[in-house]
Write a structure and sequence with these properties.
Length: 237
């Protein structure tokens, strides 16, 4: 049983979905502190003028130390604004007509939510469906009490969550190699696996040279669901 645990992100990049797809269960780690100007509330698409940040407006007063799952959305029209930007940038994309309605429907559901975390999770689940990724998605606070999560150090928190989910392997992103203590998992009977994103292939994009640091929405609209899945997981399209 392989488990991955990451904070929810806004319309994440391909690598986020690659790690979900390679896991038997995926846990959103949204009880931890929200970080401003980070992937939690923004991501990039590609336009004729270059990369464009799409940032979700959140209430910041009194929330600088709030957990991700307590951060409130600030402006009710943010989803419509982002959809207009996506439509403007990708209307010429090969699979726009086939894929955009599903993206539009996911945004309509996310737009009605008061919390960033819930909106992120709705959009991530919808993008997983488009990519035919069936990995169960869970929340950290549904596995362990919030007080217990807050009392644990970062590595022990991951290990306890993975153990609670029944893992015998924890799948980590490569950035954690410098600080993750694998012994914390070993004493709980778990191995640690490391995700490698170096094999993610380039693919045809609109608007010039390939840019890898974009939301997976770019791949879906340019390649379609099967092609985007192949470009994310290295499978035949």
């Amino acid at each position: 049983m392989r488990v991955a645990i990451i904070q929810s992100c806004y319309i994440p990049w391909r690598g986020y979905f690659a790690i979900i797809a390679r896991s038997d269960a995926f846990i959103f780690l949204d009880s931890v502190q929200f970080t401003r100007r980070d992937w939690r509330s923004r991501n990039r698409i590609k336009t004729a003028q270059g990369p464009l940040w799409l940032s979700v407006p959140v209430r910041q007063k009194g929330q600088y130390h709030a957990p991700i799952d307590a951060v409130e959305l600030a402006e009710p029209g943010w989803a419509e604004t982002h959809l207009r930007s996506i439509a403007s940038a990708y209307r010429r994309a090969a699979h726009f007509d086939a894929v955009f309605p599903a993206i539009e429907a996911a945004y309509a559901q996310a737009a009605s939510q008061p919390l960033l975390s819930v909106a992120n999770q709705i959009l991530t689940a919808a993008l997983c469906r488009l990519l035919a990724i069936a990995t169960p998605l869970m929340r950290d606070v549904d596995l362990l009490p919030r007080a217990q999560l807050e009392a644990l150090d970062p590595t022990a928190r991951l290990a306890e969550l993975a153990a609670k989910a029944g893992a015998d392997e924890y799948l980590s992103g490569p950035a954690a190699r410098s600080y993750l203590d694998e012994n914390v998992f070993a004493v709980r009977g778990m191995a640690v696996g490391w995700m490698d994103y170096t094999g993610l292939p380039e693919y045809p994009q609109l608007w010039g040279a390939f840019d890898p640091a974009l939301s997976v929405i770019d791949a879906l609209l340019n390649l379609g669901p099967a092609g985007a899945r192949a470009a994310t997981l290295g499978e035949p399209s």
